């Protein structure tokens, strides 16, 4: 594997890390000695955007960011520029400079970049975001924010110290569910929530083959592929199409499973507006055919959150796997007439799509994923309270435009690392429970798992040799 020389941008952020220890309030462009777009862009000026990870999810992100009209795309970076999945982005932005290594990109054109889209596999979000923020660049990072609890801690910390705009890519956090949940919580419609069921039961890439895996497969490395940079700080393994370009999500070493993938779209508003914070206990209730390398075929993970102010303790239970759905009380269904018998029966609540059931003191709510709005169930209960429900309206920027407008100082980012970092840490803890099983006790103040040394070590694994500097910024 290649050894990357200590480049200009890397030397710069090592020096800057010492400054961070002393200056925690000054603007990032002053602390960092680097031009930052924060507070400097005129409203009429577009944000100069670099994209790291330009295929699949990154391709869609880049397309939507550019369509907002608020950015210029000045750089494209992907470890597989020859791959079919990266060709559309390259064709759409023929004048953008191209790189396979994000470190080289920042070395050569840091002064030309205001903000960075990071849409690489989960395990590599961290290093790219840390380097970008150290150079005063605003960052939009796909969900989940990072691969480990410790990485999230460092991202939250550097985001605060650097003063840059940050946004995690849980796009629904700028949609109808965000504004509705906020308004209904503030109005006391959603209150005294003691239980939430969240579920995602679509087929996953590892279903089937993942249960019997004993080692990483090996295939010839495609020509031009920068496989060493693909790993970033994660462990090295052989190349195969079970890892790249999309299968990485299946493996504990690189992905976050169904929970890290869909949890940010299902539990984000509940976590934020119910002020859940971090759980005290995480229990692997069910693991279907667990494997030490690949996520289970199905899992049920329960989180117990403590009382917060006047909010009661809350249990959140996550369900994934094709046939692993929560039981929903029959009385929450709506009456329908059975055409065969002529009798009135209760039709079960539809939980065929990803979503959640939120159990409050007086009301129960059903919701989907992303921006889907909540509805009061059953319908008869909704009819009783509909006149008292706050009206939520108005036109708001989408998640991508919100980020770019925040870079220009015109809005505040809705899913900054201060919010999305702790949300992601809940998923990090859940993944450890999926991996090891059992019941884990977590101390939110000490930030450690207190009853399992192996699980506690997984909160913050050591980086791959040669990538330690990203953890010391």
Mind sketching the topology for me?
Elements: H1 8-22, H2 28-32, E1 47-52, H3 57-67, E2 71-77, H4 87-92, E3 97-99, H5 102-109, E4 115-118, H6 125-134, E5 138-141, H7 149-162, E6 166-168, H8 176-186, E7 195-200, H9 227-231, H10 257-266, H11 268-273, E8 281-288, E9 298-305, E10 314-320, E11 334-337, E12 344-347, E13 355-359, E14 364-367, E15 375-377, H12 379-385, H13 399-407, H14 417-436, E16 439-443, E17 448-449, H15 453-457
Parallel strand pairs: 1-2, 1-4, 2-3, 4-5, 5-6, 7-10
Antiparallel strand pairs: 7-13, 8-9, 8-16, 9-10, 11-12, 13-14, 14-15, 16-17
Helix pairs in contact: 6-7, 7-14, 10-14
Attribute tags:
15 helices; 473 residues; Rossmann fold; nine-stranded mixed β-sheet; alpha/beta; six-stranded parallel β-sheet; disordered N terminus; 17 strands; 2 domains; Dihydrodipicolinate Reductase, domain 2
Any idea of the CATH class of the largest domain? Alpha Beta
Please tell me the CATH architecture of the largest domain by its name.
Answer: 2-Layer Sandwich
DSSP summary, beta strand count? 17
Strand-residue proportion: 15-25%
The main sheet orders its strands as: 15-14-13-7-10-9-8-16-17
Task: Give the proportion of residues in helices.
Answer: 25-40%
Give me the Rg, rounded: 23 Å
The pLDDT mean sits at 92
Low-pLDDT residue spans: 1-6, 13-39
| Count of spatially separate domains | 2
Shape: globular
């Amino acid at each position: 594997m290649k050894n990357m020389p200590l480049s200009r941008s890397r030397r710069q952020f090592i020096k800057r890390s010492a400054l961070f220890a002393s200056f925690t309030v000054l603007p990032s462009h002053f602390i960092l000695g680097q031009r930052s777009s924060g507070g400097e862009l005129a409203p009429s000026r577009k944000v100069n955007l670099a994209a790291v990870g330009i295929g699949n999810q990154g391709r869609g992100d880049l397309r939507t960011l550019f369509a907002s009209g608020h950015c210029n795309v000045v750089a494209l970076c992907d470890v597989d520029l020859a791959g079919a999945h990266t060709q559309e982005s390259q064709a759409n932005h023929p004048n953008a400079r191209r790189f396979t290594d994000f470190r080289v990109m920042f070395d050569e054109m840091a002064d030309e970049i205001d903000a960075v889209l990071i849409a690489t596999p989960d395990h590599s979000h961290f290093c790219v975001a840390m380097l970008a923020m150290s150079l005063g660049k605003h960052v939009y990072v796909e969900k989940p924010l990072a691969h480990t609890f410790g990485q999230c801690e460092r991202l939250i910390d550097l985001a605060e110290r650097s003063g840059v705009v940050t946004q995690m890519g849980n796009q629904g956090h700028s949609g109808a569910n965000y504004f509705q949940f906020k308004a209904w919580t503030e109005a006391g419609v959603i209150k005294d929530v003691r239980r939430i069921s969240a579920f995602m039961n679509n087929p996953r890439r590892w279903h089937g083959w993942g249960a019997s895996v004993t080692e990483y497969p090996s295939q010839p490395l495609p020509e031009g592929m920068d496989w060493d940079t693909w790993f970033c700080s994660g462990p090295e393994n052989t190349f195969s199409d079970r890892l790249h370009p999309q299968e990485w999500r299946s493996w504990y070493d690189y992905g976050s499973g169904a929970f890290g993938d869909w949890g940010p779209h299902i539990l984000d508003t509940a976590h934020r507006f119910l002020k859940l914070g971090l759980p005290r206990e995480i229990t692997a209730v069910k693991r279907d055919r667990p494997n030490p390398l690949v996520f289970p075929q199905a899992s049920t993970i329960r989180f117990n959150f403590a009382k917060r102010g006047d909010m009661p303790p809350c249990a959140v239970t996550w369900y994934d796997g094709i046939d692993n759905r929560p039981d929903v009380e029959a009385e929450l269904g709506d009456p329908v007439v059975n055409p065969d018998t002529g009798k009135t029966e209760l039709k079960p609540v539809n939980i065929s799509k990803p979503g959640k059931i939120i159990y409050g003191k007086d009301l129960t709510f059903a919701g989907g994923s992303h921006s889907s709005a909540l509805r009061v169930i059953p319908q008869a209960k909704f009819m009783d309270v509909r006149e008292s429900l706050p009206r939520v309206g108005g036109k708001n920027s989408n998640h991508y435009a919100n980020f770019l407008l925040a870079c220009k100082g015109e809005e505040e980012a809705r899913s900054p690392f201060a919010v999305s970092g702790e949300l992601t840490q809940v998923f990090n803890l859940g993944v450890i429970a999926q991996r090891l099983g059992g019941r884990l006790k977590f101390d939110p103040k000490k930030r450690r798992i207190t009853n399992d040394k192996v699980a506690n070590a997984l909160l913050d694994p050591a980086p791959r040799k040669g990538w330690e500097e990203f953890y010391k910024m």
